[in-house]
Amino acid sequence: MFDKLEQLEARFRDLEAQLGDPEVVSDGQRYTTVAKQHAELADVVAAYRDWRATGDDLEAAREMLAESAGDDAALVKAELDELTVRRAELEDRLKLLLVPRDPNDDKDVIVEIRAAAGGDEAGLFAGELQEMYLRYAQRQGWRTQVLSEAAQGIGGIKEAILEIVGDGAYAHLKHESGVHRVQRVPATESQGRIHTSTASVAVLPAAEEVDVQVNPNELRIDVYRSSGPGGQSVNTTDSAVRITHVPTGLVVSCQDEKSQHQNRDKAMRILRSRLLQAEQDRRAQERADARAGQIGTGDRAEKIRTYNFPQSRVTDHRIGLTVHNLTDLLNGQLDDVVAALRQTEREARLAAVQDEDGS
Predict the structure, then answer these.
(1) What is the mean pLDDT of the chain?
(2) What is the 3-class SS of 140-185, one letter each residue?
(3) How far apart are CA 195 and CA 201, in angstroms?
(4) Residue 346 — φ and ψ, nearest 5°?
(5) pLDDT higher than 80, residue 257
(6) Which of 35, 36, 275, 309 could lock 184 by a disulfide, CB 3.0 to 4.6 Å apart?
(7) CA angle, corner 123, sides to 121 and 129, nearest 5?
(8) Are residues 72 and 147 located together in one domain of the fold?
(9) Are 154 and 300 members of one domain?
(10) Is the predicted pLDDT of residue 287 greater than 60, yes or no?
(11) CATH code, domain carrying 342
(12) Domain limits at 270?
């Protein structure tokens, strides 16, 4: 491990020198690439340097202890114990930082939200989840776009597809995939009884054309007139687009834009992301690791989180995390939950790597 850390530190110093090179600075694209690589190594190099400095401090404390007596020795011994704990913590952190990252972590995401069990109440909850993710993205400084949305009559949504563009968006949001459950008294409930409703969320890494090659001959593209609530026509031209990927049977429809070209572009972005996810799932199954290092199965049928309104409680069932700030969470303050999920993923990946090394 420490040979690798030395190599990473040498690479970090080289990148640091390049960032000060006028030739690199004058080349915008090259500078951006170097700066990104430098930032990716910053945490592990800082932890390694801290670990090394703590080792030097430990050695000095041992020498002082050998020369001390009485109260002085007790003070040095206490410092030695603190340094020992600190170094062990840094070593554990280094192990986590060296675990291979998910190659999709830097990608943008497509988030699909659908009302599930619970009728109108499920649609209202799905709409609240949509707002939660949009607000979280805004807090992160990311760009968002609603690619497709089907509203329901009393408010809320039947389905929404969002595109979120930002650094590390997939790393932060990928664990949101699954079934989200809400427990509360609906506004229409006269007896005050608590109802349970659900909405499903799927978070897909956004796929570029270089990630997924789609053969145009394998697509069936239908155009039709957009329709509003109740089936009323909202467009007098055939601007809505339905794309079917014949080999897989995947179907994507978009009708939110007035331009057929814009709807087709949106539909293709969604289709590419679904195809990329399907291919990655297939490869994971072939390797028999079934998303090793991730939290839960990621299956949309898996209940991952419960939002209990009467107790203002949110519980993530995969990691046993319970918080009592439901309103803040729905306002996009997901940082603590996201951090806990990412930490658990890193620990799971580390355990998987150690199992492989021991086998």
Answers:
(1) 84
(2) HCCEEEEEEEEECCCCCEEEEEEEEECCCHHHHHHHHCEEEEEEEC
(3) 20
(4) -60, -40
(5) no
(6) 309
(7) 105
(8) no
(9) yes
(10) no
(11) 3.30.70.1660
(12) 109-349
